[in-house]
From TrEMBL:
<feature type="compositionally biased region" description="Low complexity">
    <location>
        <begin position="140"/>
        <end position="169"/>
    </location>
</feature>
<dbReference type="GO" id="GO:0003887">
    <property type="term" value="F:DNA-directed DNA polymerase activity"/>
</dbReference>
<dbReference type="InterPro" id="IPR008921">
    <property type="entry name" value="DNA_pol3_clamp-load_cplx_C"/>
</dbReference>
<dbReference type="InterPro" id="IPR022754">
    <property type="entry name" value="DNA_pol_III_gamma-3"/>
</dbReference>
<feature type="domain" description="DNA polymerase III gamma subunit">
    <location>
        <begin position="5"/>
        <end position="105"/>
    </location>
</feature>
<feature type="compositionally biased region" description="Low complexity">
    <location>
        <begin position="114"/>
        <end position="132"/>
    </location>
</feature>
<dbReference type="Pfam" id="PF12169">
    <property type="entry name" value="DNA_pol3_gamma3"/>
</dbReference>
<dbReference type="GO" id="GO:0006260">
    <property type="term" value="P:DNA replication"/>
</dbReference>
<protein>
    <recommendedName>
        <fullName>DNA polymerase III gamma subunit domain-containing protein</fullName>
    </recommendedName>
</protein>
<feature type="region of interest" description="Disordered">
    <location>
        <begin position="110"/>
        <end position="189"/>
    </location>
</feature>
<dbReference type="GO" id="GO:0003677">
    <property type="term" value="F:DNA binding"/>
</dbReference>
Length: 319
């Protein structure tokens, strides 16, 4: 509200936040001395200090939330509302990791090691609140054997009674692996002049050397090798990832890895998908939407609470 009263541009504010979050993520992954950080030498110590407060997973999640918010500001009406929603998602993003651990514990029926979670006080407090309900089924060693196995059949029932949209979304992957999403699965990646195995080997080598760069490459939708030129295609909405790969250091790293895997020197360039590829992606989204419309749990939710499905995204697109 204050920004609008002062006449400031909300998109400019969001892009500055993206630039700052990108610097934090690179500082966390590559160190504060990396050439990829767009900051002056006197700003780097403060960036390194701020990056140390978060994990790499948290910064990646924040970065993607800001990218989605910037896309909403450019494409949808009422930018103030979308900016506020994006900021709220940033505030509540720290709760995602403990909730994932809690859901995994409910499914497996065994306590989950939470030592790998985030170190924030809010996260630890949520884990402490979630731990006591699971203790009675495991702590009494003096009970008879039948009592120790009694909670086991109750676990699926408890998870089935989670009739919330998040639980329905979490339960659908059991039936969705057969659906091939254009940007989500490795099997449907478009390749030309290069095999799927070679692409997977290149991705694995990049991921082993630099995790952040490996995550960027995972968003690619097609690989094409023609002569001595290797083209990596990205969807139009992933333009930012393509531009980041074109940087000097990432570009050189991908070129070196690709040349080693292919056994010959190649040039690497990042390109955006053509209209035909976008149309194919839209058809894949329609197939995914049709599958969710046929899902009994989704239909039950719509009949009980009303409403309609406006947009369907694969799990990989949300990450």
């Amino acid at each position: 509200h204050t920004f609008q009263k002062e006449g400031r541009n909300l998109q400019h504010f969001c892009r500055e936040a993206i630039r700052h979050m990108r610097n934090l993520l690179i500082a966390r992954v590559c160190g504060a001395d990396s050439e990829l950080i767009a900051a002056t030498p006197d700003q780097r110590p403060a960036i390194a200090k701020a990056a140390a407060l978060f994990s790499e997973e948290d910064l990646t999640r924040f970065f993607q939330i800001l990218l989605q918010t910037d896309d909403d500001l450019r494409r949808k009406p009422d930018p103030r509302v979308h900016l506020e929603m994006g900021l709220l998602r940033l505030i509540t993003a720290s709760r995602l990791a403990p909730l994932e651990e809690l859901l995994a514990e409910l499914k497996s029926g065994a306590p989950v090691d939470t030592s790998s979670g985030t170190a924030r006080a809010a996260s630890s407090a949520l884990r402490q609140a979630a731990t006591p309900p699971s203790l009675p089924s495991f702590t009494p060693p003096s009970k008879v054997v039948t009592q120790s196995f009694a909670p086991a059949p109750a676990q699926p029932e408890a998870s089935q009674q989670f009739a919330s949209p998040s639980a329905a979304q979490d339960a659908t992957p059991a039936t969705t692996p057969e659906v091939k999403t254009p940007n989500g699965s490795k099997e449907t990646l478009r390749v030309s002049g290069i095999s799927q195995e070679q692409v997977a080997e290149i991705k694995s080598a990049i991921q082993a050397q630099q995790k952040f760069l490996g995550e960027l490459v995972e968003h690619s939708s097609g690989w094409e090798l023609e002569g001595a030129e290797l083209r990596i295609y990205f969807p139009p909405e992933k333009r930012t990832f393509a531009e980041m790969i074109e940087g000097r250091e990432p570009h050189e790293r991908i070129r070196t890895v690709s040349s080693n895997v292919l056994g010959r020197a190649v040039r690497v360039c990042a390109k955006l998908d053509s209209v035909a590829a976008v149309t194919a992606a839209a058809s894949g989204s329609q197939e995914l939407r049709a599958q969710f419309e046929r899902d009994p749990m989704v239909r039950s939710m719509l009949e009980r609470f009303g409403g309609k499905i406006t947009e369907v995204r694969s799990r990989q697109q949300e990450k």
